[in-house]
């Protein structure tokens, strides 16, 4: 008995391009799943102790970060130093962009500067604040959210670093789940943002 070709089983000849589209559809159908839960970071609203800075205007650049932290994944670090992504969850945007936005908002909530802006927004400022995200993860070994950000206050005209400091915070995590991890990291970040806002203007 003659077997009909696979192409014929679809009612006749099938063009190669159509086969490729059909295969892609099957692959996509097999890979589809529930959308990841998305979490945001917040800026502290009650900001006390923020001092002024020369010129009352400040540029806040986007933080530097290693590739592991330059995305929207929520990171878990194991006791052996291994790094993994918490499955089924993500940040609302790239982590450096989120941190930059929340840092600017924290300065604004302190109400001690005339204008805080990103580079390219037409603000002429005497100082720029550069940061680097060194740690932003859940430590499975200590069950803590760990946030560590280095900051540099830079004189814009000369490029001279006026002052630099490392800020960090740790917050306990009650079970490494998406909501618990996001909540603890948000709390740790809020602590670090407050530390930076209270420090940087006072150094200018």
Give structural notes.
InterPro entries: ABC_trans_aux. Residues 40-196 form the ABC-type transport auxiliary lipoprotein component domain. It comes from Chelatococcus composti. With 204 residues, the chain is of the alpha/beta class. It has a single domain, classed as ABC-type transport auxiliary lipoprotein component (Rossmann fold), CATH 3.40.50.10610. The chain has 3 helices and 10 strands, in the order αββββββαββββα. α2 packs across α3. It starts with 15 loop residues before the first helix and ends in a 5-residue tail after the last helix. The model is unreliable at 1-30 (pLDDT under 50).
Task: Please specify the SSE layout and strand pairing.
Layout: H1 16-31, E1 37-39, E2 57-60, E3 64-65, E4 75-77, E5 83-85, E6 89-91, H2 95-110, E7 115-117, E8 127-139, E9 144-155, E10 161-172, H3 178-199
Parallel strand pairs: 1-6, 2-7, 2-8, 3-8, 4-8
Antiparallel strand pairs: 4-5, 8-9, 9-10
Organism: Chelatococcus composti
InterPro entries: ABC_trans_aux
Domain ABC-type transport auxiliary lipoprotein component: 40-196
First-last Cα distance: 89 Å
- Report the sheet-strand fraction: 25-35%
Total strand count, please? 10
Main sheet?
Answer: 8 strands, mixed
Radius of gyration: 24 Å
H/E series, N to C?
HEEEEEEHEEEEH
CATH topology: Rossmann fold
CATH homology superfamily name: ABC-type transport auxiliary lipoprotein component
């Amino acid at each position: 008995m003659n077997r009909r070709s696979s192409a014929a089983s679809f009612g006749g000849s099938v063009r190669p391009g159509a086969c490729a589209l059909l295969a892609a559809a099957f692959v996509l159908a097999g890979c589809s799943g529930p959308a990841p839960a998305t979490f945001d970071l917040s800026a502290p609203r009650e900001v006390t102790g923020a001092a002024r800075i020369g010129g009352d205007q400040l540029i806040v650049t986007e933080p530097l970060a290693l590739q592991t932290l330059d995305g929207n994944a929520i990171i878990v670090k194991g006791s052996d130093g291994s790094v993994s992504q918490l499955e089924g969850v993500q940040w609302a945007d790239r982590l450096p962009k989120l941190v930059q936005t929340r840092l600017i908002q924290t300065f604004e909530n302190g109400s001690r500067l005339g204008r805080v802006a990103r580079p390219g927004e037409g603000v002429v400022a005497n100082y720029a604040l550069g940061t680097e995200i060194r740690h932003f993860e859940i430590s499975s070994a200590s069950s803590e959210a760990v946030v560590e950000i280095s900051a540099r206050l830079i004189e814009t005209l000369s490029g001279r670093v006026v002052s630099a400091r490392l800020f960090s915070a740790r917050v306990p995590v009650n079970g490494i789940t998406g909501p618990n991890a996001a909540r603890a990291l948000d709390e740790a970040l809020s602590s670090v943002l407050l530390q930076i806002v209270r420090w940087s203007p006072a150094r200018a």
